[in-house]
Amino acid sequence: MVVVTLWLYASYIPSKDNWEADQESRILPMDTEWSLAPSAFQTIIQNSGVPTMDLFASKDNKKFPKYYAWFRDLGASAVDAFTVFWGNDIFYAFPQFALILRTLQKITNDQAAGIVLVPYWKTQVWYPLFEKMVVSKPFFFYPHPNLLFSPYSQESHPLSQKLTLVAAVLYDKGHNLYGSFNSHRSALSLVLPGKIGEDPLIKRCLKGVFRLRSSTPRYNVTWDPAQIKLPSDSLKQVSFKLVTLLCLSTGQRLQTISLIEVSNIKRTGSGLQIFIPDLIKTSGPYNSQLCLDLPYFTEKPNLCVASLLNEYLQRTQCYRRNNDFLFLTLQPHGVATKQTLSRWVKT
């Protein structure tokens, strides 16, 4: 058995001999330097006052003459803002997302005051600390779609500017939710050149809107389906009960229910089968024809959809004439639209 021992030594290699690695270490990726949109920055300082120093900046994107840089910079007052005391000046801080928690802790330790920009992310570990600081200190928090991040080395994409203007108008006027913003993005994608949906500024803006105004469910209550155990004495009661049971038992939209035709209803030994050959919202080029299978519910005849449908066909047979659609209006007996069926279900 042979034992080999390896010894590692740390040694200094002069830059002239290690020029390749030294050159790579001095390259600043262009996509890491971001700056707040000038119009948004002016809005902030008009509402909260003018700070005296920029904590996280460089010579290309600094907002004030006095700034701290994270890389060696001839114009910076210091390198690495976390190594200096922040309590002597009114600061402006726009930290990278990974540095937000450390920034808030530094502000607390130095008892500093100023402007700090953070995203509206309630799920982040640092957000409770930020909320406490907003209550006790004169911080300014401005979550708005206009606060877009733009690379300092180039102008914002003109398509981004157009959509940003639309987003700002939607945000300021009314209570539009995320779905409204996304619909406008889709509409502009059809008429404007370029791939708007892939633009990094647009994606960042829509993410912010989603956190501020996320879409909410249309309904926040649950209805008790036991209420449909009503008698079926009249044609009106049978109609209301049948369309409601069809919605509950099949899970289909009222658009689909309104397209049921009598000629497409097939009787089997165990129940009924309803074929829907028309194009509906869920139709696709590779989807098979929709078939609704309604077995007889012998355990609870009062809730048997197949039996109720047979009864409905018998009661409406004299009113059909040449009308093949299943549901008929009450008076006169014409074709019931999906809006009519929707009103029946709600009633």
Structural notes for this entry:
- InterPro entries: DNA_brk_join_enz.
- One of its GO terms (molecular function) is DNA binding.
- The protein has about 350 residues and is of the alpha/beta class.
- The chain has three domains: about 100 residues, no CATH class; about 60 residues, no CATH class; about 120 residues, Intergrase catalytic core (hpI Integrase, Chain A, Orthogonal Bundle).
- The strands form four sheets. The chain has a three-stranded parallel β-sheet, with no helix packed on it.
- Strand 5, helix 3 and strand 6 form a beta-alpha-beta unit.
- The longest helix has 16 residues.
- The chain starts with 18 loop residues before the first helix and ends with a helix.
- About 5% of the residues have low confidence.
CATH fold title of the largest domain: hpI Integrase, Chain A
- Name given to the CATH homologous superfamily of the largest domain: Intergrase catalytic core
Q: Per DSSP, what share of the residues sits in E-state strands of 2 or more residues?
A: 5-15%
The CATH class of the largest domain, by name, is Mainly Alpha
Order of helices and strands: HEHEEEEHEHEHHHHHEEEHH
Mean pLDDT, all residues? 78
State the separation between the terminal residues, measured CA to CA.
88 Å
- What's the number of extended β-strand segments? 10
Shape: elongated
Count of individual helical segments:
11
Radius of gyration: 33 Å
CATH architecture descriptor of the largest domain: Orthogonal Bundle
